[in-house]
């Protein structure tokens, strides 16, 4: 297999794009494509201050690397969740995120959930009894809250996450199985903006997971290989398997599924007649928008866990 | 496992409904459910004349049996496709459909494609070069044409087909992967009526394929076990496998996928702003509605195959 650009030996073969590339051309191709997606979906400009949510995994570290490479003003945010799983998941991912920033002279904000909110994610999950024995719902709620807070408090215009195509297609697949109009209308590379909140964007949403793995490896980015120990057996991993079955049979199926969805949404396919938009109010404690009157879900959860603790 | 109704030994266990039944209660339950779906989706009444498209397989023969059992005026239509596959697929299915009708004193219309249009389906497919080496597209086009023609010429109000949940969910899955608004709006238990055409209905659309197999077996209906020899490797069979993977993991997933789709469609989820409805004209030869001016697709195909042959 030869590189389509220079004819030398290819190291990456993307059947879904009918494209094989050598290392050098692949490492150029990925940022070029990312730039194209950033412009196509009007994610941000060079004037915007961007906060990248960094988990220590291949996607978020590569995203940060790519944005800096493309000349964007991108800082990182690492959230310490206090998850061990027998191999120090959180401490190892913290170490890798911090080293990545240090080696490149980048700014990394660090928020440790236990230090700021009194308990780690697994403990908050246990006390609050949300999410049927798994801390994933609590973790998602907490990360969203912290990302919004830091973006707002530190004056970032944009919050960027490393969701790749496999992530997005799996979420879309779940929303489709339930035909949730609300979720179908909302999903996309750019989340509809809300007053007082940073715009949320997903610059990697059109890259296959294996494309990002190849990028991180070829670029020499050191990342945490392990998945979060709580991810095992999750619905989203299961949906990814189903979609991979489709993809193996028809290279490009996953991308077509996601892109034709975006086009259909653009055409207005999911505009429901008589749709009622939920009104948002600022949470009386943290000020972030919420549909409920009074406290938002996050503040109610923390209130339940430690009534006496002051919520930053 | 005990029958939920009478406590005797159950022979059918439907995890998707959390329901196990004995033979007698199952044979009552299926027609009761069918009656419920016929009413819920306003398919037809006892005053309507119904034409059942009968292939000789378990679904269509069971459908016919159920409609007659429920007291509806239902005649059959068998279309001879001229497919052999090394085991006499068409002749065997013809024999079984004819015997079913004869044993019960029912009216069965028979249309033999080769006798009426000059060539069998595989030959028409070869000559007309439609469908990339597979006769499935030609076969579908021909069956639709013949069903519409017989229903119209013989004064039937309704055309009923034996599509089960697995069939419908597979079609829906395919339409979803491409996010075709037009197809998503159109798919359902009752096809939108067109002037001069019988209403098309699918009374079995909420029964799992294995529920219909169990019904045919327990009722002692003799049907053709073999699939059409051309079905092997088809996209729809592949989609059924994917959906079965989902179903095995979560009993009821297939039904939820289909029913929540129907609900979303009812709510108006797929009402596209600026949707353009294609106008229909009667075909200048056969009179059936078509989007093209002049001949419909079927008549154009037959014209190509045998210009000199008169099209009935």
Largest sheet of chain A: 6 strands, mixed
> What's the helix count of chain A?
12
Shape of chain A: globular
Question: What is the average per-residue confidence, as pLDDT of chain A, rounded to a whole number?
Answer: 92
Q: Count the beta strands of chain A.
A: 10
Task: List the strand order in the largest sheet of chain A.
Answer: 5-4-3-6-8-7
Helix content of chain A: 40-55%
Largest interface: A-B, 26 and 26 residues
Q: Can you give keywords for this protein?
A:
12 helices, homodimer, alpha/beta
Q: Secondary-structure blueprint of this entry?
A:
2 copies of one chain form a homodimer.
Chain A: E1 12-14, E2 19-21, H1 23-40, E3 49-54, H2 58-69, E4 73-80, H3 89-104, E5 108-112, H4 113-117, H5 121-128, H6 136-153, E6 158-160, H7 165-178, H8 181-186, E7 190-191, E8 199-201, H9 209-219, H10 235-249, H11 253-267, E9 281-282, E10 289-290, H12 297-305
Describe the structure.
2 copies of one chain form a homodimer. With 312 residues, the first copy, chain A, is α/β, with parallel strands linked by helices. Chain A has helices at 23-40, 58-69, 89-104, 113-117, 121-128, 136-153, 165-178, 181-186, 209-219, 235-249, 253-267, 297-305; strands at residues 12-14, 19-21, 49-54, 73-80, 108-112, 158-160, 190-191, 199-201, 281-282, 289-290. Chain A has a 6-stranded mixed sheet, sandwiched between helices. A two-stranded antiparallel ribbon of chain A has the order 1-2. In chain A, 39% of the residues are buried.
